[in-house]
Design brief:
The complex is a heterodimer of chains A (183) and B (102).
Chain A lengths: L18 H7 L1 H4 L4 H11 L6 H28 L5 H6 L3 H7 L24 H25 L3 H28 L3
Chain B lengths: L12 H24 L4 H24 L38
The chains are: A mainly alpha (183), B mainly alpha (102).
């Protein structure tokens, strides 16, 4: 069971709409290393984990990732607020817009709808935790790429927070792996 | 966190909201840490203090302003859970109404 809190984990307040940037950051929601994949990966892997410490880690990290989905969706919402037709065309946002308008839809920046093949879940505990360690690194690298492509300080502030959380989650999953190995 | 934690009366709505956001983050971070370090007494003590402070601040915020969880709504006879703004509602054409919020 989950309880909704009416606040973002970290503030998202973007002063300047930028549909081009929204079309890139959509990958952080629905791309292969995005937050939807992250939350579904961990929350589905929990059930067959043999150690309570690892179940708790997957539960709590997976829940935090749901909050990160909300942060990324908020970034996209604010970047595409009240766009003019010219802004939609000039920003290259037209290919997304034709199917979804400015609605939030989990897809990669290249336009591939969210694909559950981006996640893995096995009852082999070590295989799953190795998957998770790689996933956190890939998400961190994705956020690095976004920071290279974005020059909006409001966006980058929130993206830097999300990037830092990937580093912390990687640390916790490393500890979870050592727990499973009996160290 | 604000150093003057016991005096919330002179905080604006936004400042109180940011205290809650900060305490919530500390709570999340400690939960993750305790999941893999369940025997760490220092972290456990910090966690209990954080939860107590978060409860106090949240109750004050919800009684003065608006619900953060649905269960915080209704004490004034109104279902204020439906009220704007929702957390993403900032940006062009929308106004941040909470003075002092980040």
């Amino acid at each position: 069971m989950w309880i909704y809190e009416k606040k973002l984990q970290y503030p998202v307040k973007i002063a300047t709409p930028n549909p081009r940037l929204a079309g890139i950051i959509i990958s952080a929601l629905g791309g292969p290393d995005g937050e939807l994949a992250a939350s579904m990966r961990y929350l589905n892997q929990r059930y067959t984990m043999p150690d309570g410490r690892v179940v708790a880690t997957l539960t709590d990290v997976g829940s935090e990732e749901l909050g990160h989905m909300e942060m990324v969706a908020s970034i996209i919402y604010q970047l595409t607020k009240n766009l003019s037709d010219d802004e939609i065309r000039a920003g290259g946002f037209d290919k997304y817009y034709v199917d979804h308008g400015t609605g939030i839809y989990p897809a990669s920046a290249s336009g591939v709808p969210f694909n559950a093949m981006a996640i893995a879940s096995k009852s082999d505990a070590l295989a799953s935790i190795h998957e998770d360690l790689a996933a956190e690194q890939k998400a961190r690298a994705m956020y690095d790429n976004i920071l290279r492509l974005s020059d909006d300080p409001d966006v980058n502030d929130a993206i830097k927070f999300l990037r830092q959380r990937e580093v912390v989650h990687f640390q916790r999953f490393g500890e979870a792996m050592r727990i499973l190995q009996g160290d | 966190m604000n150093n003057n934690q016991n005096n919330t009366s002179n905080m604006t709505e936004g400042e109180l909201f940011e205290e809650i956001r900060a305490l919530s983050f500390v709570k999340t971070e400690l939960e993750l840490y305790l999941d893999t370090h369940p025997d760490c007494a220092v972290a456990l003590d910090y966690y209990r203090q954080t939860v107590a402070a978060l409860k106090k601040y949240t109750e004050e915020y919800e009684s003065k302003y608006s619900p953060i969880c649905a269960s915080g709504a209704g004490s004034d006879g109104k279902w204020s859970w439906i009220n704007m703004p929702w957390p993403w509602q900032y940006g062009r054409g929308e106004v941040n109404t909470r003075e002092g919020e980040r």
